[in-house]
Amino acid sequence: MTRASNSLTANLVSKIKFILLSAIAALSLAAVPGISAADTVANSVIGARGYDLTTFFTSEKPAHGTGHHVATIDGVDYLFTSEENKKTFLANPEKYLPAFGGYCAYGASIGKKFVADPDVYDIIDNKLYFNLDTKIRAIWAKDIPGNIDLAKTNWKKIASKKPSEL
User: What does the angle CA 102 – CA 99 – CA 67 come to, to the nearest 5 degrees?
Assistant: First the structure.
């Protein structure tokens, strides 16, 4: 055998081992009581990039939460800086949840779902809006009421779609 074929064979064996170990791991997870597909890393969703949503409304600068204070809404985990903030959020989640599922407000106004940057935000009429970046926010800010109306109309059509489908 040549060096190239030895390398190719070793690579193939390595891939087969990986596939077999992955299959065994998947079957093992399925066999363990109390563990479901929803408990896997692929389904771990942290909302607002870990920011404590209440701090957008109560602090000069929003703060990141910690894993010590977590609330789950519709399969999304939200982190808080304190148990008090978590309780405040849970008492009225709609007050603190960002508009349009936390996607870019301008994106929603044009029928798209852009991943937003929580550092680029506005609070309009006590509602939190994120945007993609400062350039997009500047476009959005030229007609905030009009863009909010467009986004609300479009959101009805795109809310259940994946960003890649738009």
Answer: 45
Q: What's the sign of the alpha-carbon dihedral 156, 162, 165, 166?
A: positive
Torsion of CA 131, 137, 143, 149, to 10 degrees: -10
Q: Which amino acid is at 156?
A: K
Q: Which pairing describes strands 66-73 and 117-124: parallel, antiparallel, or unpaired?
A: unpaired
- Beta-carbon contacts of 91 under 8 Å, excluding residues fewer than 6 positions away, are none
Question: In this structure, how many other beta carbons lie within 10 angstroms of the beta carbon of residue 1?
Answer: 8
Task: Name the strand (E) or helix (H) holding 138.
Answer: helix 134-141
Residue of 73, 108, 66 lying closest to 93 (CA atoms): 73
Which sequence spans correspond to the domains of the chain? 3-36, 45-96, 98-166
- What are the pLDDT digits (tens) for 13-41? 444 444 444 444 444 444 445 544 455 55
For position 40, what pLDDT does the model report?
55
Token pair listed for 51: 């920011």
**How would DSSP label each residue in 126-137?**
TEEEEESSHHHH
Both tokens of residue 115?
Answer: 């991943």
pLDDT tens by residue, 148-165: 999 999 999 999 999 999
